[in-house]
Amino acid sequence: VFVAPGSPSNAVVAIENGGSDPHCYVYFPDSQDHWCPLAQTNMSEYGSNLMIKVRVSGGALPTNDISLLAVQGDEFLKTGEKYDYRCVVRNSAVNVVKSFDVSYSLDGVLQTTKTLTAEKGFAYNENAGFTLEGISFTTPGEHEISVTVSAPNGNEDIHPEDNTQALKLTVYNAADALPRNVLVETFTGITCGNCPGAHEREAEAFKNLDVIMVTHHSGYYDDVFTTDADKSFTWFYNGGTFAPAIMMDRTNPNSFYSTGYYGPVFLPGEPSEIRSVYETLTNIPTTVDVKLSASYTPSTHQLSVTISGDVLSDPLAADPRLNVWLTESNLKAMRVNEKGELAPFPQNGSPLGGNYIHNNVFRLTLTPTWGDKVDLSGTTYERTYTCTLDESWKPENMEIVGFLANIDGADCNNCRVLNAAKMALSDASIVDGISRQLSTVNSQLSTVRDLQGRILSTSAAAHGVILVNGKKVLQ
Questions:
Q1: What angle do CA 277, 419, 398 make, to 5 degrees?
Q2: So what's the pLDDT on residue 338?
Q3: How far apart are CA 183 and CA 68, in angstroms?
Q4: Which residues contact 435 (CB under 8 A, 6 or more apart)?
Q5: Residue 262 gets which letter from DSSP?
Q6: Taking CA atoms, which of 13, 34, 379, 434 is between 20 and 30 Å from 47?
């Protein structure tokens, strides 16, 4: 504990080893909020730091204090199967911890309490780990495991409020599970210098995989590809935005990738790390599937998309939504020049400059930005949406992406994608107005008449005299 003049906004305070310890505080007598964490007051930009090192001694020191930092393991469990959960505990006091008690509850019912020992012990600010083995449920639905640590070295913990962690679990029958297709959303920009490198890492991570990917040009600076929807989706950062960034199935990766992210969006690391997140999500079961079909009229640029699927059981989504999007690939970066015309624009961070290719660019949503409400209480669902494509878009480079996701306007970490699908727009059935007219004319021409105009046959393969625009023609 330190006493410093002034207020936290202009304090010049530092501590040996960086002052990042959350248990270190500074007392500011002239400030309205007297006590402030030291980590927030190390304001070196205001001048030279006052380096202070203090050794506190006496009989009233915090001698026994442990914290449970995390409970890690599968969040989706098959009925009847056994699962293990890894737990991390930290010593937050001066005494070396050589033993402590662990108890855990399932759905609020205490299962067991035992004392764990560490032969060498772990000192202040050091972590130790233990595993709860054989956790199992027989009933499908939402469940919870709650873990508590206590009694460091057999003594009372002076700060028991940080001794418990709970983890929500979803239990399902294996027969109710369907294959999951993971939706990958990335955030990028033409002026993002680090984005080309991230795109390369992502390409390596997803090599040999048919990934459903959508790229939002938002999170950094807007560019010619940015839409209002792209801007809205930065809500998933749950804080400050950045690029390059990636989001998979709108799921926060903290429990199985890297801690510290406030929302589902995270920084794409090494290819192996990206691949690991993808494969973890692929193995999460789902009880709904997504199918896409479409028809396209080139002469009018009209597109009709039907999204449908089967529902094996309640997906436990409070507010499920249907989403149908369009993406386009093989695009060069552009900008509006001083003449108001589109002109090539070099991609920052790439030696290709104006020849850099952008793929999977989000173009349009056929549904509302946050999806269209859908009832999944039955065994199937189906909905059809239509739109008119921009004439500058090239259908041969476009994909249709459809997915089901929960939406929770109060919590971006509760918007998990339930399942997804994609199809090339070039695979849509072609319905052209001109073709239909020609088909009608051809069906009329198939009527065979004699020289007096009497109908002899309606067979398209017949031969004889037919009438075309009122004139008799030999067929």
A1: 90
A2: 80
A3: 33
A4: none
A5: S
A6: 34
- In this prediction, what percent of the chain has a pLDDT beyond 70? 78
DSSP class of 288: B
Strand partners, 143: 169
Structural element, H or E, at residue 27: strand 25-27
Tens of pLDDT, residue by residue over 338-351, are 888 878 889 999 99
94-97 LR contacts (CB < 8 Å, sep 24+) = 94/61, 94/62, 94/63, 94/124, 95/63, 95/64, 95/152, 95/153, 96/121, 96/122, 96/123, 97/66, 97/121, 97/122, 97/128, 97/152, 97/153
How many CA within 13 A on the CB side of residue 161? 1
- Give SS3 for 15: strand
Averaged pLDDT, 419-443: 72
Q: How many CB atoms lie within 10 A of CB 111?
A: 12
Q: What is the pTM of this model?
A: 0.68
CA geometry: angle 399, 403, 409, nearest 5 deg = 125
Of 205, 198, 209, 207, nearest to 272 by C-alpha is 205
User: Sign of the CA dihedral 240, 245, 251, 253?
Assistant: negative
Residue 140 has pLDDT above 60, yes or no: yes
Number of Cβ within a 10 Å radius of residue 413: 16
d(CA 29, CA 95): 31
Amino acid at 457: S
Residue count (the chain): 475
β-strand pairing of 291-297 with 429-430: parallel
Residue 392 is encoded by which pair of tokens? 């500058």
How many whole angstroms separate alpha carbon 188 and alpha carbon 223?
10
- Identity of the highest mean pLDDT range in 27-31, 253-257, 279-283, 372-376: 372-376
Q: Are 326 and 363 in contact (CB under 8 A)?
A: yes
Contact 367, 323 (CB under 8 A): yes
Q: Phi and psi (nearest 5°) for 276? A: -65, -45
Residue 244: other Cβ atoms inside 10 A:
23
Contact 152, 100 (CB under 8 A): yes
CA atoms in the 13 A half-sphere facing the CB of 223? 27
